[in-house]
Amino acid sequence: MTMALPATAGAERPHHPLAHAPALVLGILLALLIAAALSAATVGAAGIPLERLPAALGLVAGDPATVERDRLVVWSIRLPRIAMAVMVGALLAAGGTILQGLFRNPLADPGLVGVSSGAALAAAATIVLGDRLMPTLPAETLPVAAFAGALVVTATLYRIATRGGRTSIAMLLLGGLAIGALAGALTGLLVFVADDRQLRDVTFWTLGSLSGATWAKAATILPFLLALVVATPLLVRDLDRLALGEAEAFHLGTSVERLKRLAIVLVSAAVGAAVAVSGVIGFVGIIVPHLLRLIIGPGHRLLVPAALLLGPVLMLGADTLARLVVAPAELPIGILTAILGAPVFLGLLLRQRAQIGL
């Protein structure tokens, strides 16, 4: 199978003037991230006006009548949720950007390699079978199982796609589709045998939510985000070279096999960690790279760092909206990202149809 080289994956083009102003782009995205975080901290069932936020954060003295309640809401509920939204958004968006560069296909998504499906299957098995086999399972078992499921899928897929020391991108894609379909079928089987409560738990988990955010959960995915940030400078130049083709990248000095291994391990760990703490949240990993390419072009030197900032902005915005549209209840964030993301994706697809040869 030959992966098509999209027009968006080549060298940077002059009609993206912001591609030559990385400091400006990253500054704007950082400002948007701060604004989204402030909005998420102040908006909700327990409204905290912006002028009371400094006191709630403990930066200044505040009105004794409200400051204790505000501090409890901000430090126990809002800030852990913001931290998780930022990290989950960054992991999904950067993971999708790297994966699209690796596959040289702007339609590639972390879900394509089966990582999300493997994590969902492990989580469903924990919910349905865990109650019957070991009713006293601790709450931390669910995210641990989901992450383990993502790792098992990655290891299996890598073994299938690697032969004679070479990893086939086409086999990664096709194997990921097959494993994702199998994991989806097994998850459906577990749903079929689940009782009403288990069915509700599995359904809500697979729809994605940040409602269970805690500092402990946020801390568990921080190492994965740091690893992704540290590895980004090692990947971006080689991803740009790979856009020219594997042979061309090799002749330019890129170790293509090392790049494949590093990218797959990083993306799988990043997506697995995000899914483990938030459930399955789709479209972030595919929408963010597309939006950024329209603004700053396809060069990965700026694209990946920008995705690390725009992903959190999108996730914070979606989470804030999810808490408002059906208040005092809360809409699963996966539903919202799908409702908002699918039309945007279709619009981008139609706009770029001529360029990507569909």
TrEMBL record:
The chain crosses the membrane at residues 23-48, 79-99, 111-130, 142-161, 167-194, 215-236, 262-290, 302-325, 331-350. Keywords: Cell membrane, Membrane, Transmembrane, Transmembrane helix, Transport. GO terms for biological process: siderophore-iron import into cell. CDD domains: TM_ABC_iron-siderophores_like. GO terms for molecular function: transmembrane transporter activity. Belongs to the binding-protein-dependent transport system permease family. FecCD subfamily. This is Hemin ABC transporter permease.
